[in-house]
Amino acid sequence: MSGSRGAEAEERFRALHESTFADLLRFVERRVPVDEAEDIVSTVYLTAWRRFGELPEDARPWLFAVARKTMANQTRGWLRRRALDVRLSTTEEQHVADGSSSAAARVDLQRAWRTLSATDREALALVAFDGLTAEQAATVLNIRRSSFAMRLTRARQRLQKALEPAAPVAPVLSSRPHTFQEQS
């Protein structure tokens, strides 16, 4: 790129970087160790710069997809579950006066979250944590929108079920009446 055309492309790229960097970094930090996140994000932007002419109008899902593929390339050999695990502990905590009710809710959510499959966690995270629409998340995962919508619905149902309190176990009652002597 040369001259004003190169300057225009550079300015558009800077605007893209400025508008997506924070979200992309959070997306990556929840999935890999924090000390590796910036390297992955820089690789994503290098790829975006090299393929700048091919970027779609809404480049955000494209960047997330490139980040996801970059993470997969860097995590080969790691267990799949660990590579895709969303780290809830990195989310900002909301402070409540005594903290007891929010702490209990966080513990319940973390416990329920860990019962979900990596696929369910990824679908929920793309929408809830990364703020993507169903169409954008489907682009990130390289699946049809209808497939993603079904995956998201089922993941929400499984999370809701995991958050429900366990049904109390009723004591077993004998069907025959006790006599006074048996009770003493």
List the helices and strands and how they pair.
Elements: H1 3-29, H2 34-50, H3 59-74, H4 80-84, H5 100-115, H6 118-128, H7 134-141, H8 145-163, H9 180-183
Assigned CATH class of the largest domain = Mainly Alpha
Largest sheet: none
What is the name of the CATH topology of the largest domain? Rna Polymerase Sigma Factor, Chain: A
Mean pLDDT: 80
- What is the succession of H and E elements? HHHHHHHHH
Secondary structure class reads mainly alpha
What's the number of structural domains? Answer: 2
Report on this model:
- With 184 residues, the protein is mainly alpha-helical.
- It folds into two domains: 1-85, Rna Polymerase Sigma Factor, Chain: A (Orthogonal Bundle), CATH 1.10.1740; 98-164, Arc Repressor Mutant, subunit A (Orthogonal Bundle).
- 67% of the residues lie in helices and 0% in strands.
- It is built from nine helices and no strands.
- It has helices at residues 3-29, 34-50, 59-74, 80-84, 100-115, 118-128, 134-141, 145-163, 180-183.
- Helix 3 runs parallel beside helix 7, helix 5 (100-115) packs across helix 8 and helix 6 (118-128) packs across helix 8 (145-163).
- The radius of gyration is 24 Å and the shape is elongated.
